[in-house]
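hey all, quick one before standup. I had two proteins in the batch that finished overnight and I want to keep them in one place so we stop losing track of which output belongs to which input. First protein below, input sequence then structure tokens straight from the run.
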Amino acid sequence: MVRVAVPDQGALEGLAKIVSKSPLPVIGDIHFDYRLALEAMKAGVAGIRINPGNIGGTRKIRQVIAVARDQGVCIRIGVNAGSLEKDLLPYPPQRQAEAMVTSALRHIGLFEQSNFKNLKISLKSSDVLQTVRAYRLLAGQVPYPFHLGITEAGSLISGTVKSALGLGLLLVQGLGDTLRVSLTAAPREEVRVAYQILRALGLRKRGIEIISCPTCGRCQINLMALVKKVELAVQGVAAPLKVAIMGCIVNGPGEAKEADIGIAGGKGYGLLFAGGRRLRKIPEQQLVPVLLEEIENLVQQKG
């Protein structure tokens, strides 16, 4: 699914166009003005994300609920540590999880009073351990799906690490139904990182998984450039294949044999493996085109 921010009335026209052309469900992200939520639902969104604490009071929330019920729209209650109710502030840092859960339960209670249960819940903080703790605390108290995320996680590297830790800890416990990786980077990088997390946990099998070694004194080919070229070339491949690109003859042959396709580098050359068998020796300058050709052949065979 795709979440689209709807900050003002001017965004609604663009939202309607996106909904009409998107092959994926579109979620409207709404803050401060309940009328934006009403108009987003009229535009055909599959769901909306609101923070009930800033949407405009109980009467307005009930108007949102009424339209959502009529149109079958799911509502995500988004609780963020950075925008909790004033009476929950200030909280000691070690009690942030409890504050988020208290806020979530208040909002859930309001929706349940209106007999609306088409909900999912998110509890987000930039603190990995408090976020994990909050979801764990709430999991035993409500039956609703969870949307996972480490909010404001940071740049591509630091945000990836924090997201992998937080989401991984929750997912391996069976907590979480949808997720968003939050990075200060292009949205496509968020999607790539999310897929990598799911694949590492065995929850998704899609696309090329590249196994490659760190460079060391035994590496005698330009491994980093080689991996970068192959990774870029196979981004659009959906077939779930494991490709090993190893830089030396110590661990390389073993790892390459375990992959669907692999190479183990020597001095200016690489040994090509497929299906556990050594096929041939290839000069370094030909490794990328040969490897891509072998990947394409295997994809077609599995096709």
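OK second protein, same deal, sequence then tokens:
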Amino acid sequence: MPAEEVRPGLWSIPVAIPLPGLHTVLVYAFELSRGLLLVDAGWSSPESLASLEAGLAEIGASLDDLRATVYTHAHGDHYGLAGVIRERTGASVALHGGDVPLISARLGRGEEELTAWLTRAGVPDGDEQHQMRPGRGQFAWHFPAVLPDVDLVDGTLVEAPGWELEVVHAPGHTPGHVMLVERRAKVVLTGDAILPRITPNISATPYAEDPLGDYLGALERVRALGHLLALPGHEGVLPSVAARAEEIVEHHEQQLRETHELVEGGAETVRDVAERMPWSRPWSALPPWERRAALGEAQAHLVMLERRGEISRVCDSPLRWRSVLTPA
């Protein structure tokens, strides 16, 4: 897939990433009076870096033209090259403060926090939990601990001469996820908050207590943007960001109904619910990292049901829920 000029002076550049199912991330380059501003970058790997450099060459540019980098969120496929780019070019790194704890965890306590979270989710200690705990080296490879030097603040404008890029905080996929709106160009860069075919993983983690509640609130803000062209982090453009937001809201409402039915049927722990939820493959066929994502998604829906008063928490370690309609 070649680079594409989606608006005059705004380029979409596909960058290769080593993830199953999502082979590329879409990064965006804004032409400035001098140089470029880059939104997202790619995985921390030589292959992604070479792919980014090739994409920039397609539009007649290079890494040396980068003046600043902005990141929609701190996941490895978007933020992974942040440190390499800053070291090679001096370009600033801008990120919302809500995602800084995700980076700080890689500086020492990530594994311990993940182990505690898995135990609380009802994953028994032993082979299953061990498979879901990546080693410290894997943490570093997936997510280099590079702290930003610019804080993105909701409602403010990114410093990008010639553009009016407004920061819209859209938490859920990560606590600090942002979108960037350029109303004059009638576009919104959605990162992973809005994707064309799939719904982003919304996971409860040690850093997000009610991510689904946060996300549904963010989608209400997205609806208010109207029919702007959506430029997502994967797959391709969408003609109406508001229409896709409505579809995603209905998807989660359906998941909430199904999750409630599972609790009524006797599933109590996060793992019980995750094992029974409908995924693209059976639970037994999911690789460990997908099981972790499924656990987080299940917990996010359970917390949302609890806050709506449809289920109640009966134990905190491990977490257990019961339908409020189910006799004690």
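Flagging for whoever picks this up: The chain has a mean pLDDT of 91. The chain is about 35% helix and 20% strand.
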